[in-house]
Amino acid sequence: MEKSVKKIQMVDLQTQYAKISGEIDEAISSVIRSAAFINGPEVKAFQAELEQYLGVKHVIPCANGTDALQIAMMALGLKPGDEVITANFTYVATAEVIALLGLTPVLVDVHPKTFDIDLAAIEKAITPRTKAIVPVHLFGQCADMEMIMALAAKHKLYVIEDTAQALGSDYIFSDGKTQKAGTIGTVGCTSFFPSKNLGCYGDGGALYTNDDELAKKIRMMANHGQRVQYVHDSIGVNSRLDSIQAAILRVKLKRLDHYAAARQKAAAWYDKALGNQTAISVPARTTNSTHVFHQYTLLLHGIDRAKLREFLSAKGIPAMIYYPLPLHLQKAYLDARYKPGDFPVTEKLCASVLSLPIHTEMDEETLAYISDSVLEFLKA
Q: Residue 179 pairs with which residues in a beta bridge?
């Protein structure tokens, strides 16, 4: 089967925009007409609407997801030398802010099927210097938050949820109760980078919490450390979501669940087409989280990944590697505590995962073409 329609993309933001362009254009124009570019009504309205969607008391918008993580750690009063546990198999930003603040990043391995942070590894890594855990809800489904929260309570630790890839997913507790990703820990952090499931047309991010006092600190930290203009109670940063991005996000937030359903439908197609192959594993689902499929990531078994990627590329199909090098082997994060082989699951995943295109605008013809192409390679 040959693909004759438009170019396949990992994320098709152009087609997504075309369907909502009238609302988006009016939202942007409205902000420009108002000239309320910073902390305008659109930011306050988006904040309130996201609070309602998440079922959380406080949403504090900021400039990007990396800032969100940094502001969270600053607001929690973490000090140089404090240890913060996070997953090795993740984007660098998670560890970057820990190191930037002079904290000590403590890397742990992940679950071999779900790719989320491994609970046993967390417990083993806790020391008297540990102050926080940063679980990353990788690729669109939640880490085991119920168990992580129990472990954090036992050791009196903060939990900072990195939910940049899982906004909109639901965590399901053992008693059947559900909560949105990012609203369970001490504080949740997210990114509105354009390719995210809820993405703006530039940079953006947010923090969320149910703790009133922490929310006050976060707002202060994100605004130069000031509660009252020109009165600075602490050292802070300048991190704001601008009004144009907030207006765009308001339009897209109304469609977030619809967008998640579209990604889930595409994932189900891939599952059916590729799920019975011994040479690849389709994404595993946990029983305690819904999956919003920020990525659809295959685990390859004995396949030359470079050749598969080259084969797909020749057919006009992009495929991405998230992430090709573990954090402990990155030049910036080399540490005498860690050596090659210390994180067998992470190192295996970095060498054998491959993500296929998945987004809100995928049609069955495209999904069939991609799936058939993967199968063609496997049969060769």
A: 171
The reported pLDDT for the residue numbered 177 is 97
pLDDT digits (tens, 9 = 90+) for 275-316: 999 999 999 999 999 999 999 999 999 999 999 999 999 999
351 CB neighbour count, 10 Å cutoff: 13
Query: What does the alpha-carbon distance between residue 103 and residue 119 come to, in Å, rounded to a whole number?
Result: 21
Report how far Cα 180 is from the mean position of its chain's Cα atoms.
13
Q: How confident is the model at residue 6 (pLDDT cuts 50, 70, 90)?
A: confident
Angle at 333 between CA 331 and CA 336, to 5 degrees: 100
- Classify burial at 305, counting beta carbons within 10 Å of its beta carbon; exposed 0-12, middle 13-18, buried 19 or more: middle
Q: Please tell me whether the peptide bond between 208 and the residue prior to it is cis, using omega within 30 degrees of 0.
A: no
Of 192, 207, 126, 217, the closest CA to residue 160 belongs to 207
Long-range contacts (CB closer than 8 Å, 24 or more residues apart) made by 193-196: 193/64, 193/65, 193/164, 194/11, 194/13, 195/10, 195/11, 195/13, 196/164, 196/165, 196/167, 196/294
Task: Give the position of tokens 């308001």.
Answer: 250
pLDDT for residue 5 = 53
pLDDT at 354 over 80: yes
Per-residue pLDDT tens digits for 24-64: 999 999 999 999 999 999 999 999 999 999 999 999 999 99
Q: Length of the chain, please?
A: 380
Query: Tokens 């609070």 belong to which residue?
Result: 51
203 neighbors 64 (Cβ within 8 angstroms)? yes
Instruction: Look at residue 127 and give its three-state secondary structure.
Output: coil
Share of the chain above pLDDT 70, in %: 99
What structural domains does the chain harbor? 15-109+116-253 (3.40.640.10), 255-379 (3.90.1150.10)
User: Which value, in Å, is the radius of gyration of the alpha carbons in the chain?
Assistant: 21
What is the spatial distance between Cα 116 and Cα 42, in angstroms, rounded to a whole number?
35
Average pLDDT over residues 122-144: 98
The values of phi and psi at residue 293, to 5°, are: 50, 65
Helix ranges restricted to H, 9-92: 13-34, 41-54, 65-75
